[in-house]
Amino acid sequence: MPPHNHAVQAADAVVSVRNLSKTYADGFQALKNINLDIHRGEIFALLGPNGAGKTTLISIICGMSGASEGTVVADGFDTVRDYRAARSLIGLVPQELHTDSFETVWATVSFSRGLFGKAADPAYIEKVLKDLSLWDKKDNKILSLSGGMKRRVLIAKALSHEPKVLFLDEPSAGVDVELRHDMWRMVRKLREAGTTIILTTHYIEEAEDMADRIGVIRRGELIVVEDKNTLMRQLGQKQLLLTLQQPLPALPEALAPWSLALSSDGLTLTYTFDAQKDDTGIAHLLAALSAEGIHFKDLQSSESSLEDIFVSLVHEETSAEAEVKQQNTNARKGVAA
Q1: Terminus of the chain with fewer CB atoms < 10 Å: N or C?
Q2: End-to-end CA distance of the chain
Q3: For position 166, which CATH number holds?
Q4: CATH code for the domain of 287
């Protein structure tokens, strides 16, 4: 066996991605210098808008697509030079419902296990099918199944060879609520059994509920990788909503020191504050309102969801990007002139 790649792998990482880039023949750069460690036994959610590079990244890690630059190491095996060893550690549930339509559920899942050189294990296949509520369909041909059942078969196929790492690429897309709940129950069970789960999802509330860590990819760049709770604490904002007794025509000058927004009907004041600070400013604000003769009849607080944070990250344009865009605009104007 050739010596393993010299790419550094963190001690608790089951997958390490280093300096990974992907540029297509037409010059489009789908991934830009991605560095990422997936911790053993975690649920990692990769979020990003359509076209951000999520599926490209997963395809490269799973060995289904080549990188232009960089390395991927899966549990010590380089995914290019030690392809078979690396690939046998990974299960992938793709977005598309590609299955062997004329095969039975039992046959296609058993065949998938054999593809990875694993000895037949009917008891294990039975357990997987039962866990996915597929046991009563085991003799059905795939073409006779509903879309949701076909999705379950894809998951069973991905689990057939007992992978250490399971990739779920938009697993909830187009499935019913019952299947979604079944799926997440199974994901939790797998994680408890030691499987590492990496998922991409459009259902951000699921990532908020399930994930240990969150990565956000935007235009081929990994812009944040953080523990979910830390991310929500650092980037989340809290708001205080005050329903006033009388409409306010405009915000008085005395309230300028606070980050306040007045609703169009003048009846609601929204105060946005940093919950991490020792002094949120709420007590001083309430005193200032009283001094101004502004009285409220209701007070509510709310905080950012992961979806709010995701939207702000994805749509936030950095000053550097804005500057480049402006330079390009100026250059085009110069050419036009």
Answers
A1: C
A2: 62
A3: 3.40.50.300
A4: 3.30.70.1560
Which ranges constitute the DSSP H helices of 68-167? Answer: 83-87, 105-115, 122-131, 147-159
- Residue where one domain finishes, among candidates 169, 202, 232: 232
For 211-230, what is each residue's pLDDT tens digit? Answer: 999 998 988 999 888 888 88
- Interior CA angle at 90 toward 115 and 58, to 5°? 120
Measured over the CA atoms of residue 12, residue 43, residue 199 and residue 184, the dihedral's sign is positive
Q: Is residue 315 part of a domain?
A: no
Tokens of 95: 């977005």
d(CA 291, CA 57): 57
* Rg of the chain in Å (alpha carbons): 25
Query: In the predicted model, what is the mean pLDDT of residues 25-52?
Result: 91
Contact at 8 Å (CB) between 63 and 83? yes
Backbone angles phi, psi at 75, to 5 degrees: 50, 45
Residue numbers of the domain that contains 291:
237-303
Q: Is residue 322 in a domain?
A: no
d(Cα 325, Cα 323) in Å, to the nearest integer?
Answer: 5
One domain for residues 280 and 220: no
Domain count, the chain: 2
Higher pLDDT, 127 or 298: 127
pLDDT (tens digit per residue) in 229-283: 887 776 666 778 888 888 888 888 888 888 888 888 888 888 877 666 667 778 8
Q: Which amino acid is at 172?
A: S
**Which amino acid, 153?**
V
Q: At what angle do helices 177-192 and 147-159 cross, to 10 degrees?
A: 10
Largest CA distance in the chain: 80
Alpha carbon distance 132, 223 (integer Å): 35
Which amino acid is located at 104 in the chain?
Answer: T
| Model confidence, pTM | 0.72
Q: Give the bridge partners for 43, in sequence order.
A: 197
